[in-house]
Design brief:
7-stranded mixed sheet; 282 residues; alpha/beta; single chain; 21% strand
Length: 282
């Protein structure tokens, strides 16, 4: 999947930015992201106008659609310890930490493997999974009808999360789809109002971890979520130049270190995943 969000608000076509302070025209449409250079953007189907009047955002986590990113010469995942130099840290992750009832929030449903696993492991848990792409939600009804998932316990929310609200259309493997992004603070506030608490937040959404954590970490105490898992991504056009992306991650890692303790860190061909036990959370 190569998501391109054409936002309702307008953006200037000229330098220095396509849609924000660091994503320049040359970054959007250059040989770095495609052999066509400035005639086409990083996808051969995306013209300069489509690239630079909207925003390329990481809003969902169907990683299998992003294998073409390999053609851009940078890895999809960053080095595990690029900010602190640590190696893999093995540790058992109990998403619910024995809590009953358990409440789980996931950003990026993918093909539902996590939702299915949690539903089996924690049959009494309430699970909220965000997925803005309708084409990625097609299997939900079949899973409910087959009795694999409980409508009472599993809730699929038809939108994604970011640092602010954004609406538009995104290009997926099935064509243009209308999507909605909501502020992560509002999303967690609403779920907390319904459930009373959240035990575990799982973030795996092709780059949305950067704006999501930038918005959520400064006010983490308002939700008191004790466990956070994050899959880090890199090398994608919508994350900006790699030096800036790395700087953003390291700033977030500094905040995480102040607010929690690293419980597990795993690097594999499937991704770079960290799990943090947040301090002061019950």
């Amino acid at each position: 999947m190569k998501p391109l969000l054409n936002l309702a608000v307008g953006f200037a076509l000229a330098e220095p930015g396509c849609f924000d302070e660091y994503y320049t025209y040359s970054m959007c449409c250059s040989p770095l992201f495609g052999a066509e250079g400035n005639t086409k953007c990083w996808s051969s189907s995306l013209t300069f106008e489509r690239c630079c009047t909207g925003a390329v955002l990481a809003v969902q986590s169907a990683g299998r659609h992003l294998l073409a990113m390999q053609d851009y010469g940078t890895p999809r995942f960053p080095p595990l310890g690029e900010c602190r130099g640590y190696s893999s840290l093995s540790g058992e992750v109990d998403e619910c930490q024995g809590a009953t009832p358990c409440k789980i929030v996931e950003l990026g449903t993918q093909d539902g493997l996590n939702v299915r696993r949690w539903a089996r492991k924690f049959p009494n848990a309430s699970i909220y999974s965000l997925e803005p792409f309708a084409s990625e939600r097609a299997w939900h009804e079949a899973a409910f009808q087959a009795g694999e998932l409980s409508r009472e316990k599993v809730h699929f929310l038809p939108y994604g999360a970011s640092d602010k609200a954004q609406n538009g259309t995104a290009e997926s493997r099935r064509g243009q789809e209308t999507i909605e992004l909501r502020p992560i603070r509002d999303v967690l506030d609403e779920i907390l109002a319904l459930e009373g608490h959240v035990n575990f937040l799982y973030v795996n959404c092709e780059g949305c971890e950067y704006p999501v954590l930038q918005a959520a970490l400064p006010v983490w105490d308002r939700w008191n979520i004790p466990l956070l898992s994050v899959e880090w991504h890199a090398g994608m056009p919508w994350l900006g130049p790699e030096p800036l992306r790395k700087s953003r991650r390291c700033e977030l890692e500094t905040q995480l270190k102040l607010k929690g303790t690293l419980q597990a860190a795993v690097e594999s061909q499937d991704g770079v995943m960290e799990t943090w036990r947040m301090q002061g959370c019950a």
